[in-house]
Amino acid sequence: xxxxNYGPLTGVKILDISTMIAAPFGATxxxxxxxxxxxxELPNKGDTLRTVGPWKDTEPLRWPGLARNKKxxxxxxxxxxxxxxxxxxxxxxxxxxxxxxxxxxxxxxxxYEELKKANPKLVMMRVSGYGQTGPYRExxxxxxxxxxxxxxxxxxxxxxxxxxxxxxSLLDYVTGIYTAFACVSxxxxxxxxxxxxxxxVEMGLYESIFRMMEFLxxxxxxxxxxxxxxxGLAGHSSPAGTYETKDGKxxxxxxxxxxxxxxxxxxxxxxxxxxxxxxYTNSERLKHDHEVQEIVSSWIRLFTQEELQAKLDSFGVxxxxxxxxxxxxxxxxxxxxxxxxxxxxxRLGKIKVPGVVPKFSHTPGSIxxxxxxxxxxxxxxxxxxxxxxSEELTLLKEKGVI
Length: 402
Known about the structure:
It contains 17 helices and 13 strands. By secondary structure, the protein is α/β, with parallel strands linked by helices. Helix 1 crosses helix 7. It comes from Priestia endophytica DSM 13796.
């Protein structure tokens, strides 16, 4: 699957000094679309994500998908020699992505004002738990606590049980998307407007999901309602939720619009509901949601999952089986879209990872090279691009700088 295609961000040079998931994922998305991403890692240690599960034996299985298309350089930017080298790399970069606690880079003498001296056009993307300002700015921030802080966790689960956190790092990945979006926006402004300087872009982890809950904000502001836990789209649409089929499988069905419900009523041969005062609009159905759910649930239980899918597809009603990863691996849509691809791995031989999205008609992104070994590109970048000699690289290694 490794290709030589170039994506729309070909020519953009990025330094990624972030660790774990959120900011690094943003850098990977940019790399997938052609950006040249150099990942700076601590000598003999590397990104902490290299030690995070799941594993196969001792191999971290998240690393190949999250660090692909990057090149790894080991460099201790806290040391004097490391700072000098780092600033030389900054002088050749468009974007710096970091996720240290606010004030850390400044403490090391590597704040934006200092880095601007090496490259006035630098865009600095800063991701932290709570943002660069505010009373919580210096608090440690991770995805799952950030999800709780955002208000998202409060909504998840059943009302008679404790709130449920996402079973994976949802907030980190969502923040990574914002990170990529912010970087390309800043570069667009700098270059299209021909600006002589770059700028700092920053956000807190919790802000990415909080931005997606405008309904929650307006509802509390205008109605004083504190929305609680519900297993589905409570208060949005009716019918909506998870339903069991005749063969004991599950599907998700959502009628977000009246026209969608109209088609469902036709499929159920219950067009009488379209004239009924309790069911004819979404707002009325929400008032009588329990009745609606009973009708729809009973009807769905008459069909196997496969029969239901075929029937509702024919009427244009959005429904989906609840897929396991095994189901996904066997699904023809995922295959046709190349949503799962295979890449080389230095010890496992091959490993499957997510494909590149979104898809561009003229400048498709690609997986150009596998996730790097720690310091794999020291000689290529520090020697080839910065001109350090073999002797200098050897000395820096002995000093623990690289």
